[in-house]
């Protein structure tokens, strides 16, 4: 059972999230794996009102969908494209994007664009801030 003291490492290693658990949280492994869900605000410094209960509810819902055999993660690129460019393995769309196509309760949908916000947050757009990673990490830990 997922609870406030469940670690990010535990979540990303759950069998239900195999192959994409590392994409559920937008920070590099070395800085996040030991954090617990009640420490989510450290992972999302630009967000306010992070609620542990809501985070757990979302993760439990995703887990339930996976247990029912539903696909909850959709790669954007083919296996061939990811072999040519391994960075493309860190992208994809979640259950919500696919649900719009199959769930009859949705009456309309809009076009959306998905990208790995964790990499952009860490490295800057097109790696424009890659040289300042350590400096920015130190500022966030103060």
Task: Describe this protein's structure.
The chain is built from eight helices and two strands, in the order ααααβαβααα. It has a two-stranded antiparallel sheet. The protein is mostly helical.
Summarize the structure.
With 142 residues, this protein is an all-alpha fold. The chain contains 8 helices and 2 strands; from the N terminus they run ααααβαβααα. The protein has helices at residues 8-12, 29-32, 40-43, 52-67, 79-84, 95-102, 117-123, 133-141, and strands spanning 73-74, 93-94.
Main traits of this protein?
142 residues, mainly alpha, two-stranded antiparallel sheet, 8 helices, flat
Distance between the termini: 32 Å
Overall geometric form: flat
What is the ordering of alpha helices and beta strands? HHHHEHEHHH
Fraction of residues in helix: 40-55%
Assembly type = single chain
Structural class computed from helices and strand pairing: mainly alpha
Task: Please summarize the sheet with the most strands.
Answer: 2 strands, antiparallel
Number of strands: 2
What's the structural blueprint in terms of helices and strands?
Blueprint lengths: L7 H5 L16 H4 L7 H4 L8 H16 L5 E2 L4 H6 L8 E2 H8 L14 H7 L9 H9 L1
Antiparallel strand pairs: 1-2
């Amino acid at each position: 059972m997922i609870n406030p003291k469940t670690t990010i490492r535990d979540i990303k290693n759950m069998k239900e999230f195999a192959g994409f658990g590392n994409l559920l949280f937008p920070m590099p492994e070395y800085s996040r794996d030991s954090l617990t869900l009640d420490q989510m605000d450290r992972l999302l410094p630009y967000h306010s009102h992070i609620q542990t209960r809501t985070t757990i509810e979302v993760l439990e819902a995703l887990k339930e969908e996976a247990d029912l055999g539903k696909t909850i993660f959709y790669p954007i690129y083919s296996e061939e494209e990811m072999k040519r460019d391994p960075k493309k393995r860190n992208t994809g769309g979640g259950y919500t994007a696919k649900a719009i196509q199959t769930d009859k309760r949705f009456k309309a949908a809009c076009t959306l664009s998905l990208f790995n916000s964790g990499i952009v947050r860490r490295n800057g757009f097109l790696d424009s801030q890659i040289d300042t990673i350590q400096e920015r990490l130190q500022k966030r830990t103060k």
